[in-house]
Amino acid sequence: MSDDTTAVTAIPRALESYPSAADQTLAADLAMRVQIEPFNAIATGVFLLAILHTFAAARFARLAHRVQHGHDEEAHAHGLPASPSLRAEALHFLGEVEVVFGLWAVVPFMVANFGWRAIIAIVMSTAVYFILFRQELGSLAARSPVPEVEQPDDDAAGAALLPVPPWVVAVHLAFMAWTVFNAHDPALFLGGFLFFLGFARATAPYQSRIELKTPLLVGFFLAGLVIHGGLQGWWIAPVLGRLPEVPLFLAATGLTAVNDNALITYLATLVPNLGDELKLAVVQGAVVGGGLTVIANAPNPAGQALLGRFFDGGILPLGLLAGALVPTVIAAIVFRLL
Predict the structure, then answer these.
(1) Of 103, 122, 197, 263, whose CB has the highest number of CB atoms within 10 Å?
(2) Pick from 48, 63, 147, 24: which is nearest to 101 by CA?
(3) Which residues contact 7 (CB under 8 A, 6 or more apart)?
(4) pTM for the complete prediction?
């Protein structure tokens, strides 16, 4: 564990820590630096992959459209309503040029810390659940979502949308940039959002219906969680600061189930003199317990809002907890023993 912690704190290595190589060739100098710090080769390789991804983004976007078109045709052939294809959405995400370098920037950090452990845990958990629930997953793919009585989905019954002109896309991107740059200024943020609603109304022939209910409720949920969770620091911080490594990992996993995991890691930063191994244990526990409940991780409420329509009566909290126990145990074993 201490070796992993050293790797976390030493990356990137200080340039002045490399020995002088004035009498060597450039190739020999670079080879020596890779030998001293092998992660240099990984970071540069990921950087090159990000550049290649940038040039291939348009291909991903075209492939996403083809996959979605095939998915819609298959649904129509079986008499089912059109729905987003998970594969097409993933390809579309990879086709967004704006996210390329940010996406690949996560890779070196995760590899240097514990990303490979997360990959192993995800693959193992997915394989186990696919074997156990392959019939249910197959039937879910052919099952229409439960109609929402309060706000029925009338997109399919509406007129077909016109091809979206480039200027509409450009305005959307401009509103997104405005939102990002003014995220901490509520007046400008809300003003831009209201202007966007007006723009969407004026260009309705090119726009799908804007779904406001679900994201507003998710935001309301997370806002309340931040307020309530932040007020629990008076007892969470002392708990985190008094535990040794393994109990701290277990406590972080359990506390994540009743608080957002980002809050747990933030409170750990407020504990004075918390060692690097203990910090790593907190982060590992927060990652491992991120799927136990709907409040354990910020994306969970959004995921429940999207998938809840496929469950009569909604997703039961105890059912979610029971369903997440096996992946959580697998992740805990992988993170602590590998």
Answers:
(1) 263
(2) 48
(3) 39, 112, 113
(4) 0.55
